[in-house]
Amino acid sequence: MASMLLNSMRSCSVSPSWGVQFGARSLCTTVQLQAQVQTKSKKTLARPGVKNIVLVEGVRTPFLVSGTTYANLMPHDLGRAALQGLLNRTGIPKDAVDYIVYGTVIQEVKTSNVAREAALGAGFSDKIPAHTVSMACISSNQAMTTAAGLIAAGQSDTIVAGGVEFLSDVPIRHSREMRKIMLSVNKTKTFGQRLGLIGKLRLSHFSPELPAVAEFSTGETMGHSADRLAAAFGVSRAEQDEFAARSHTLAKKAQDSGLLQDVISFKVPGRDIVSKDNGIRPSTMEQMAKLKPAFIKPHGTVTAANSSFLTDGASAVLIMSEEKALAMGFKPKAYLRDFVYVSQDPKDQLLLGPTYATPKVLERAGLSMNDIDVFEFHEAFAGQIMANMKAMESDWFAQTYMGRKSKVGAPPMEKFNLWGGSLSLGHPFGATGCRLVTTVAHRLQKEGGQYGLVAACAAGGQGHAMVIEAYPQ
């Protein structure tokens, strides 16, 4: 993408110092935002004849670095813990839920429909249907919008959505040739036939197949793409480390201040009770500068310190029609309003989902960036966040790649991920979306804002954005 951007700059007579120009922008500087649509003047986004869909509650297990306290569990164990935490927090009767939908990415083969297994383990009625969705890092976003769709269609009134990821133990397969021989052996009828097939085994057949860490369509890892994207937008190593340090510092402050109220305590079988995320580790710029590039060596800028880490965790939210929630005596936290999904080139624009999704969802809602009080973006890599910021601040990018007349503008940092983000809190792929939405609801309550915006990128060049409106206090 670096060469593509530079060539386009030359043809459009744009100075090659474009990336450097935006690179000088301080993380703490208020951005002058430009409205692209007519502002709604902070009126409610409720529409006549359209059901109001509300977030009643959201919880999550502590997000832990993979290979730590959760190491001996299975994905449905974490999902069950999140679902039980939601039941305990809300007090909703287990048989009052109409449907359960869960997101996950790396599936455990023994529990392929982890939504169903987690729900049964949590004690939900076996009469409640449950299904699992997978959309990379926005899997639980998809779970929530699937729930919203079912409610809007009149199919359900009360749905539990969520997601889980368990990277401490991932399925590892035999090689394809080994699998073929093993399946054939199962079909043999005589000992001689079995010996003949076993005789075809070669040493190379014993090489295991690990879960893919690269994009299937491009063969490139997401970290590699983040490195190229940072280079294309002129995002320096120092900028990335500064943003990562900000994320960890804000997360530590939020954790110590008790702001992460979606986190539930979880007694791990055979281990201690866990009640805090364990990946929050504020570091100095000097400490971070010592780390070597993780993907493009030796000149890359993406390191372990400015990337999200492999994480185990689960989340769950209770989504209802407003009418049903009030009838059952609940006080909702927020309205789930407009949302969009986007998709781009998975090679050069893999991580630019927020840039493409944000203006679209704002236009659907009739809002501008100035109307948004709370921003929560998924932090896959610090370089990915900063590249999106620069793309959103560029008229040239909007005109050249998005077919727009002008930029949407980048979120002001004083409204952005103020309680930390995926870089510091952790990123269980299938669970992060619910964390983002619940955090927006809690921040709107805490800060007195009305509108929040969630945005996230995902593997495959996909992305999601949602507008959330605070419920009247």
UniProtKB/TrEMBL annotation:
It is an enzyme of class 2 (transferase). It holds the Pfam family Thiolase_C. CDD domains: thiolase. It catalyses: butanoyl-CoA + acetyl-CoA = 3-oxohexanoyl-CoA + CoA; tetradecanoyl-CoA + acetyl-CoA = 3-oxohexadecanoyl-CoA + CoA; decanoyl-CoA + acetyl-CoA = 3-oxododecanoyl-CoA + CoA; dodecanoyl-CoA + acetyl-CoA = 3-oxotetradecanoyl-CoA + CoA. GO terms for molecular function: acetyl-CoA C-acyltransferase activity; acetyl-CoA C-myristoyltransferase activity. It comes from the Eukaryota. Residues 53-323 form the Thiolase N-terminal domain. It is found in: Endoplasmic reticulum; Mitochondrion inner membrane; Mitochondrion outer membrane. Its main location: endoplasmic reticulum. Heterotetramer of 2 alpha/HADHA and 2 beta/HADHB subunits; forms the mitochondrial trifunctional enzyme. Also purified as higher order heterooligomers including a 4 alpha/HADHA and 4 beta/HADHB heterooligomer which physiological significance remains unclear. The mitochondrial trifunctional enzyme interacts with MTLN. Interacts with RSAD2/viperin. Mitochondrial trifunctional enzyme catalyzes the last three of the four reactions of the mitochondrial beta-oxidation pathway. The mitochondrial beta-oxidation pathway is the major energy-producing process in tissues and is performed through four consecutive reactions breaking down fatty acids into acetyl-CoA. Among the enzymes involved in this pathway, the trifunctional enzyme exhibits specificity for long-chain fatty acids. Belongs to the thiolase-like superfamily. Thiolase family. This is Trifunctional enzyme subunit beta, mitochondrial. It comes from Anabas testudineus (Climbing perch).
